[in-house]
Amino acid sequence: MFSNSSKKQNAKDIDLKGVPSQSISAINWSPTANHLAASSWDGLISIWDAGSSDDIVTKMDFQTPILSCCWNDSGSRIFSGDCDNCVRVWDIESNKTEIIGKHNAPVKCIFYEKQLEGGLLVTGSWDKTIRYWDFRQQEAAAVVELPERLYTMDCSFPVLVAGCASNDIIIYDLNNPTQEYKRIKSPLTRQLRATTLFKERDGVFIGSIDGRCSVKYFQETSSKKTFQFKCHRENKNVYSLNQIAVNPRSGSFVTCGGDGKFFFWCKEKKQKLGNSIKFENSICCSGYNKDGNIFAYAIGYDWHKGRQGYTNSTKDVRICLHELADKEI
């Protein structure tokens, strides 16, 4: 559909120092500065100031594996979704953490939405719920039941999209956040790994474990039609598409995979804009900074082969920064 050892390195990419010892579960940039936060399976959230140094600035040990993290709108707090079912907040200035809510199963996805009733936290869990949290009260402000476990979610006002284990993709209008706006079945037949909104919020990128990506418009027109393509494949080997991130500047997108590569794409031109070398391990997660000119990606074991796949050759963890060329934007 689209035209076209020692540590391996993309030319000029920077390896961050002080990375965690276990795989990175999420990467998230501050909305106010080039501060990068990464959550990891060893219970850490680590922060780097990518604008000034490759050294770690600070970290917090939550003492439980962390599946997701996000910043508040001022870049002063970080929220986490954890494997002990808790939702936590870390106030960076005071260096204190507290539990602000709980699910009944691990918290897979977390987003802070400043335009939602003056600022609410949105979490999605394997307990088959989405919950909205108002920091002025201890209980969830609202709970939305899902048909199955939540595997992937994205949120950009006024749209929230949730992907479930049943391959249902549910869209919510955050002006009425507890009511489904639309429900569709994934056009991909295998398990979902990614659902990421377009920059324009009129559609969603969908990724699956069999190295396929769907570009799905919510309302199709003659110039906006849903299509699919294969990626993250080598000969007969098929790898999971682990994450999709969208450039906030241009709307182009990147797919990251279990094959140890990332690819930049343009949905309008149906064209590949560029790609990385093949790294020694999977690309677990990634993200663009607020200006869309720096791309961060995490290399490590993505657990696609379970515990038996965690060996000396797969356990190394890296976080790298890639300064985007014009052709990749």
TrEMBL record:
Transmembrane segments: none annotated. InterPro entries: WD40/YVTN_repeat-like_dom_sf (IPR015943), WD40_PAC1 (IPR020472), WD40_repeat_CS (IPR019775), WD40_repeat_dom_sf (IPR036322), WD40_rpt (IPR001680). Keywords: Repeat, WD repeat. WD repeats lie at residues 21-58, 71-100, 100-143. It holds the Pfam family WD40. SUPFAM superfamilies: WD40 repeat-like. This is mRNA export factor. It comes from Anaeramoeba flamelloides. The lineage of its organism: Eukaryota, Metamonada, Anaeramoebidae, Anaeramoeba.
